[in-house]
Amino acid sequence: MKTVLFLCTGNSCRSQMAEAIVNARYGKEWQAYSAGTKPAGYVHLKVTTALNEIGIAHVGRSKHIDELPTKDFDLVVTVCDSAAEECPVWPGKAGKRVHHGFVDPAKAQGNAEQVMQVFRQVRSEMVEVIPKLLKGESLP
Description:
The chain is of the alpha/beta class. Helix content is 36%, strand content 19%.
């Protein structure tokens, strides 16, 4: 089975969503993990809501890269610019390392529905982009 790590700064939104999507939809071929360079210590509640809306149940925990069971992955994906800058060299074996930044939904502003819409947009983009990343396709 191939392994993928989604790396972010806080490990509270984007990397958690990506981990859940891979494990739910591609779990026969891929095992996904997520971690942060500076973990927030929680998973944003709207992540769970956004994933539940598409039939994915996720129980995650915000964690630091040092807590991972391994540092060797077939693919390491940084999902925020900050993590890409803070970890320019992955300390383990990475078959391939790519960066694909997603908007940080935790920084969304507006009323509750407007903020939730940003979480949905990021989730939908991930559902479209992640299979391409797993296949090694180049993205614009």
